[in-house]
Amino acid sequence: MIQQAFAGSVPLQGTEVAVRWDSLYNFLVGLSIFFFVLVVGSILYFIVSYKHDSKKKTQYITGSHLLEAVWIAVPTLLLMVIFVWGYSVYHAMTQAPSDAYEIRVIGKQWLWTFQYDNGRTTVGEVFVPVNRPVKLVMTSEDVLHGFFIPTFRIKQDVVPGMYSSIWFTATVPGKHQAYCTEYCGTSHSAMLAKVVVLEDHQWKAWNQNKEIGPIPEAGQPLPSKTQVAGTLGKKPLIQNISLVEQGRQVYQSKGCVACHSTDGTNKVGPTHKGLFGTQVELANGKFVLADENYIRNHIEYPQANTVKGYNPVMPTFKGLLTESEMNALIAYMKSLK
Ligand SMILES: [Cu+2]
């Protein structure tokens, strides 16, 4: 019933998480309405039935253990239900499966750029397959941005100097609207992107660089010809070389090869073979996970966490790499298994 009352007031459900998220939301709204009616209703009832009357004498009540137990137990139970339910939805939203297809997102005043494994780059539109987990690894070229896809019910800050990530499995093909949700200057409200969810055959065609034809807005029929022209992802900026290969070139040209190897031998610095995903022991005795943020930090602030057994001689590359070069470099280092 509540579901019906609110139908149309929230965007369509484009992921499984969206369905779960909405159920929780509707439960919270329903619960609030129930208690609002209960409390305000009681107030009104008491106002009327206990109106001052000199002939009636009010009963003197000293307390009720049963009543107290009930008003402690019921809210405690309800809070536990909300907590467990909320945690399980949150967990489903934040823990990406390890086989998720990765796309790198760069926010910049005032547009969104997307980098794919196959070396492609698109601006203002991100192409994803339907019914497959997709992970977005995001960073910003300048100020704080936020990436929000209302139909997927997911949202995450995009922060300069580090990587944050979100993931989703889109279930509704078509174009979904994404917004920037951190005020980032003059054209903040125009910092939009379309998430284009492709069906299997379209996804295949897109990856083979073929025409995919017009794509409708999610949940809508295809509009007439004139309206869809120009936004088909017909001409994505195509790089013929994969992201990993682009990264290998950055690795060469920025001189990492002078001190690092990718074949397992240690030079002035440790080898990068098999580094990603391992626990690195630092000179200060701590262990840290070699993930995207660790590698990025080490490239920008090498002195901040020197690896055990090595001299802190690595120069900083802060400001010498663009965000897309950094993404490619990390993709390359990830590939060195
Ligand atoms: Cu922004």
Keywords:
Cytochrome Bc1 Complex, Chain D, domain 2; alpha+beta; single chain; five-stranded mixed beta sheet; 34% helix; 337 residues; Immunoglobulin-like; extended; binds copper (II) ion; Helix Hairpins
Q: What is the CATH topology descriptor of the largest domain? A: Immunoglobulin-like
Q: What ligands are attached or bound here? A: copper (II) ion
Number of helices: 8
The main β sheet shows up as:
5 strands, mixed
The CATH C-level class name of the largest domain = Mainly Beta
Strand order, sheet with most strands: 3-2-1-5-8
N→C terminal distance? 54 Å
How many beta-strand segments? 12
What gyration radius follows from the Cα positions, in whole Å? 27 Å
Assign an overall shape: extended
Structural class: alpha+beta
Q: Stretches where pLDDT falls below 50 for ≥5 residues?
A: 226-234
**Overall pLDDT:** 88
Order of helices and strands: HHHEEEEEEEEEEHHHEEHH
- Any guess at the CATH architecture of the largest domain? Sandwich
What would CATH call the homologous superfamily of the largest domain?
Cupredoxins -  blue copper proteins
Percentage of residues in strands: 15-25%
Helix content: 25-40%
Number of domains: 3
